[in-house]
Amino acid sequence: MFKLSLALASASAVLALAFLSPAHAAPDEEAAKTLMKANDCTKCHAVDKTKKGPSLKKIAAKYKGKADGQEKLMTNFTTGPMVKLADGTEEKHKVVDTKDVKELKNLADYILAQ
Questions:
Q1: What CA–CA distance (Å, rounded) separates 32 from 108?
Q2: How does pLDDT run across 7-23, given as a tens digit for each residue?
Q3: Any idea what DSSP says for residue 52?
Q4: C-alpha distances in Å from residue 75, one per residue of 4, 12, 23, 34, 69
Q5: Neighbour-count burial for 27-56, b at 16+ CB within 10 Å, e otherwise
Q6: Is the pTM of this model over 0.90?
Q7: Distance of alpha carbon 17 from alpha carbon 73, whole angstroms
């Protein structure tokens, strides 16, 4: 009886942990950083401080937890919309130079993970 109870408890714990884990894999941080560097994103953005543009943490706070957060980020860095800079001026956001949807999603997920 004890072995059965222990087996059931173990199975329950494994199932509980499975539901707590994220639905998708963590972003490939190195690939995202490489894409950002290749596209000069770090000229305007840093992880935790405002430069010419907002920090990645500030961007993540704006979109994290929203169903369309990843999509909105991808649209922002693939369509070149007008964006407001830290000094109050506006300019067209640079378009990330890749057509690879997997790379774009990874970049968006990296930003959202900040």
A1: 9
A2: 434 444 433 433 333 45
A3: S
A4: 53, 41, 22, 20, 10
A5: bbeeebeebbeebebeebbbeeeeeebbbb
A6: no
A7: 30
